[in-house]
Amino acid sequence: MWNRPRFDLKVRLTLRVAAISAACFAAISAYFLITADRAAHARIDAIAAIVAKTLELQQGKVLWTANPRPDFPNLDPVSAYVMTPGLCLAFRGPSGEIIQRFCSGAPVTADAPPQIFTAFYHGLFDPGRKAARPVMLRGSKLGEAVVSVDPAVQTAEAWHEAGRLMLALAIALPLLCVLVYAALARALRPTRLISTGLERIAAGDLTTRLPPFDLAELSAVRDVFNHLAESLDTALAERAELTRKLIALQDEERRHLARELHDEFGQSLAAIRALASSARQTAAQDCPSLLGECDGIARTASGMMETLRGALFRLRPPEVEELGLVASLEGLVAGWNGRSRGETRFAIRFDGTFETLPASISANLYRIVQEALTNAAKHAGATKVNLELTMHEGEIALAIDDDGRSTDPVAKSGMGLLGMRERVAALRGRLSFEAGPQGGSALRVVIPLASAGPQVLEHAA
Fold first, then answer.
1. What is the rounded CA–CA span in Å between residue 305 and residue 303?
2. For residues 327 and 322, what is the distance between their CA atoms, to the nearest angstrom?
3. Bigger pLDDT: 111 or 141?
4. How far is CA 121 from the centre of its chain?
5. What is the pLDDT of residue 1?
6. 324 shares its domain with 304
7. Residue 204: burial class (beta carbons within 10 Å; 0-12, 13-18, 19+)
8. What's the predicted TM-score (pTM) here?
9. What angle do CA 78, 79, 85 make, to 5 degrees?
10. CA-to-CA distance for 347 and 326, rounded, in angstroms?
11. Which of 263, 281, 316 is the last residue before a domain boundary?
């Protein structure tokens, strides 16, 4: 499976809200710019209409008074009322020449719009567009009243309006992001409890339960989580109980087989040795040539008895309840060291007090160590095996390291390892088997001393 990058949900949602807010601000700014441009054009058109009407009245007054030296056109009266910075008033004659022109200067501002905004605004709008209205008198056209605004002034006004919006955006957007992130962090705080609960479930703590949540969606997750944990806990408890019964039945079969071997084969081998000894005495008197055969029968019977003792010890070791776990394991290790004749060296170390362990845990730990030593010595071909049994914080940890063949299929997946897994599962523990850091194999077993009731995670407000 590919390792996909992980993003914090709060950061991702906050960035999306910020992007949407910025887009909304941009749309609002565009709306204001469009509205301001339309308003400027409407104002210019209205001023052009006023100028044209004023000039018509002036011409009519000239005709009415029959002034031989008419003062037409005269833009001064109307300019006193409508002039604004950057505004130009003009009268264009019938032939297109400008007869009179009056312009107000553009104010000098320190915050001139940036070139990029000027190019953007000129590309979208036409700030230098002129408004013309005809000047009519008795159905004849005397000329046109022309009104325009300096493009730089109109662009500066648009930049001023846009700058106010940008300032509002610069203040509101970070504040909005902080508030959204805080709200999301509070709303998603229960997800930490869910994540912690899943981690505990993955670690084998099936007693974990989630508390009630305020959100309906998280409450549904909580119900499913708790139901799943309870179902898994029940299933594992039933499996552990069945495994315990199977292990108890297996141990009972081993004891029964050990009694059969001891009673039948042991007595038969003892009888064979006795008969061999009697036959040797008779052969010593009557047929000395049979002494070698009698001694061979006795040696074979003795060897079989030694083998039988070893098999009986593995089938039915000394009672752990009587000797204790520490003494039993020390005897087991000493026995392997004695049988190895220097080929394999076994070492064991204890850390903790094991006298008060329940009988079921002690017996299963002894069997687990017995199977592990057998796998390491016989199947993995190890020449050095180190065992460490520790007890701390309410659990027992068993570590077995060897220098054998870690890839041996029997050592990894044989019946011995399967039996160990079943015993560990019966004790609600954990088992791992992998290659050691410096070669060989490493077996790790962790067994809890007691199972607590359901643990409900604290609900973070």
1. 5
2. 10
3. 141
4. 47
5. 40
6. no
7. middle
8. 0.47
9. 150
10. 13
11. 316
